[in-house]
Specification:
about 140 residues; 3 helices; single chain; mainly alpha
Length: about 140
């Protein structure tokens, strides 16, 4: 199987074409990784909200334990704190879900940004290159 031409001018064109395809693919992957990183940064508010909700949950549970010890009305006073703690857990779960969604969108955006130029370049370059190799062989 012959990959490159014997004539110097044709050989130079083939090598430059192959190198150009490699550089375009490398740049597209870098651009895709950069896109992923930028979109993934959007999850920061979700991480902050989750951490805050979890801290709030812990404090509310502690307050419920402390209030529950009050004579006669302790259990009644503790109930709203337990309910708020439950709500804060739900908020933390929602914040985690938001982060998961951002991660999925970041991955999809990064892959698409990288794949589109690679597929475009390969769809033009590869058939011509394979045709030449087949013909030369």
């Amino acid at each position: 199987m012959k990959l490159y031409a014997d004539r110097p001018g044709r050989l130079l064109g083939q090598v430059l074409g192959d190198l150009t395809v490699l550089v375009v693919c490398w740049l597209a992957v870098r651009l895709g990784r950069g896109t992923y990183a930028r979109v993934a940064e959007l999850a920061t508010p979700g991480r902050d909200a989750e951490a805050t909700a979890l801290r709030l949950n812990g404090r509310l549970r502690e307050a419920a334990r402390d209030v529950r010890e009050a004579p006669l009305v302790g259990e009644t006073l503790a109930r709203p704190f337990r309910e708020l703690a439950s709500t804060s857990r739900e908020l933390a779960a929602s914040a985690q879900s938001y982060q998961d969604t951002v991660e999925q969108v970041a991955t999809l955006a990064g892959v698409l940004v990288a794949a589109m130029p690679v597929l475009l370049v390969l769809s033009v370059w590869l058939p011509r290159r394979v045709a030449w190799v087949v013909e030369a062989s």
